[in-house]
């Protein structure tokens, strides 16, 4: 069959997880709660940092951007998912699908690079503490974050263009709850070997490369920590790295499983579970990880709460 004879679909149907009403209502309540916690947690983290002296630290400048990206990443997927859970027919237009994919790919890619930049920041802070103020200046941090966003945008354009240059002649049922790359590649009527190769190469370049940068940074950090003479210094160094390392393991682990393995287009059900984890659950967990594991964030939060309590106490 020639591509000229194919009729391009104008919309897609998102199959999601189940068509049973009681299951959909349960999912709606669960993911609505998760989304509200995601927005409140990440927005709260941004406000806390920006209204405290923490905002002057490079680490918390990166953390502010991480919270912003997590909130945006979840917002380009979850609200649409919640809407579809209330609909009997879950239809998304061709253009809306391409737009959702572009936004999701942009924030997912940007987060990979940002986590690597945060690992580099921790490496300089612990391994070269005397040079830290000289290396990690405000301009350097802004430039690093700008590059993260720029690379994220460029790579997402390549991904979206490679997918939506393919022909989709039917069926038009996406075996997911949002317009993700693997389920769309399964629907393509035209030869998609080039798009699969682009997906794998770019995923390896983005995820694996940044994961290696993080790994090397933490090998150096661990080596430096083990050479420290005082247990207090070791505890402080571990506490500043533990939350970031936990976020890295969760995020890169799911991304490598989802995109950076050859032949990763076949496992439909496990793709759904993994994609829920990195698009919806991890953005909710990051604020909790950083607030519970980071002493400076906990101190800033306690200071804000004590200030509010003092303001609301009756004066005699």
From TrEMBL:
Does the keyword field hold Magnesium? no
- CDD domains attached here? 7tmA_OR5-like
Question: Which one of the record's GO molecular function terms can you name?
Answer: olfactory receptor activity
Q: Which InterPro entries match?
A: GPCR_Rhodpsn, GPCR_Rhodpsn_7TM, Olfact_rcpt
Annotated membrane-spanning segments are 25-48, 60-82, 102-120, 141-168, 198-225, 237-261, 273-292
- Membrane topology according to the record: Multi-pass membrane protein
Protein family: Belongs to the G-protein coupled receptor 1 family.
- What's an example GO cellular component term for this entry? plasma membrane
Where is this protein found? Cell membrane; Membrane
Cross-referenced Pfam families, in alphabetical order? 7tm_4
Quick one: where is this thing mainly located?
A: membrane
- Give the protein name, as stated in the record: Olfactory receptor
């Amino acid at each position: 069959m020639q591509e000229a004879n194919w009729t391009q679909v104008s919309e897609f149907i998102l199959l999601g997880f189940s068509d049973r009403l009681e299951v959909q209502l349960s999912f709606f309540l669960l993911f609505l709660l998760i989304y509200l916690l995601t927005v409140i947690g990440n927005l709260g983290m941004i406000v806390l940092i920006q209204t405290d002296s923490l905002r002057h630290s490079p680490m918390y400048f990166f953390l502010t951007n991480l919270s912003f990206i997590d909130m945006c990443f979840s917002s380009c997927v979850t609200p649409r998912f919640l809407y579809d859970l209330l609909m009997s027919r879950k239809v998304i237009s061709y253009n809306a699908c391409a737009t959702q994919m572009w936004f999701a790919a942009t924030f997912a890619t940007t987060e990979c690079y940002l986590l690597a930049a945060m690992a580099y920041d921790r490496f300089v802070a612990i391994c070269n503490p005397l040079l830290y103020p000289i290396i990690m200046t405000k301009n350097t941090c802004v430039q690093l974050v700008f590059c993260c966003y720029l690379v994220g945008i460029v790579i997402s354009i390549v991904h979206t263009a490679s997918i939506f240059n393919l022909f989709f002649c039917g069926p038009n049922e996406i075996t997911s709850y949002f317009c993700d790359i693997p389920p769309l590649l399964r629907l393509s009527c035209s030869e998609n070997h080039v798009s699969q190769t682009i997906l794998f190469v770019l995923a390896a370049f983005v995820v694996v490369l940044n994961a290696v940068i993080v790994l090397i940074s933490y090998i150096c950090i661990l080596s430096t920590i083990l050479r420290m003479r005082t247990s207090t210094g070791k505890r402080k160094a571990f506490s500043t790295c533990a939350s970031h390392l936990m976020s890295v393991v969760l995020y890169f682990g799911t991304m490598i499983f989802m995109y950076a393995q050859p032949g990763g287009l076949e496992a439909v059900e496990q793709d759904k579970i993994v994609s829920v984890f990195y698009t919806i659950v991890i953005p909710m967990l990051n604020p909790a990880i950083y607030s519970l594991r980071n002493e400076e964030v906990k101190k800033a939060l306690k200071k804000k709460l004590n200030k509010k309590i003092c303001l609301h106490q009756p004066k005699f």
